[in-house]
Amino acid sequence: MDKLILDQANKVWREIGQYKTPEKFELEIEIYKKMLNFFQVGDYCYFIFSPPELRMEYTNPSITHLLGYSPEEFTLETFLSGIHPDDLQNYLNFEATITGFWKKLPAEKIMKYKTRYDFRMRCKNGEYKRILQQVAAIQSDEEGAVLRTFVIFTDISHLKQSNKMVLSIIGLEGEPSYIDLQPITQLVPAKELLTRREKEIVQLLSQNLPSAAIARQLRIGLSTVASHRKNIFRKTNTHTVLELVQLALEKGWI
Question: Is 187 inside a domain boundary?
Fold first, then answer.
């Protein structure tokens, strides 16, 4: 791939890690915590990336089913060279925007955000899939350097036909979210259209759960679920669950 492009990406990721080498320690608990905050509505895989060392530390074997590569084949260069040429500049701009955001955060808030955006990715067989990339820091130091990130790729080709790439930074643990950002711009907290409970129901609807199952899982009445569904469809001006999930992906709500 173009060395200039690789150098650009390397510079951004090294800035996130502030050129430091991560210490080795057990990450399993933090990874499991992060997975609870990630949205999967299709085939997915995940990996652990080290920005300071510019390498994939671990790639889940499900990468083979998703993109056709073995974990050993899916290197950083393979990843960057597989991004659709028309999406690559936006990808680099989004990464630079995320880096700028993380660098301004207090060290204690680094792991209270996840980032999400989508792009087209070439599979080993040459075909392209639209991938939703979600990233959260799972290790940082006292100065706020991001030492390891947890990344999930989800195939959303069946849900999104538009080639518009949407960048959102989602606040966890009560932090504000920034939706549909333009790269390298002033960040203004997004006005929340849906309540926390409504977002929970949207996620469960995206898993094809019927209202009765949603009521049991959330321990609320069936009539309450029906009321929430009615309000969700009214607020979003959608009429089917598929339309709702497509809109939620487009807006970065999930």
Answer: no
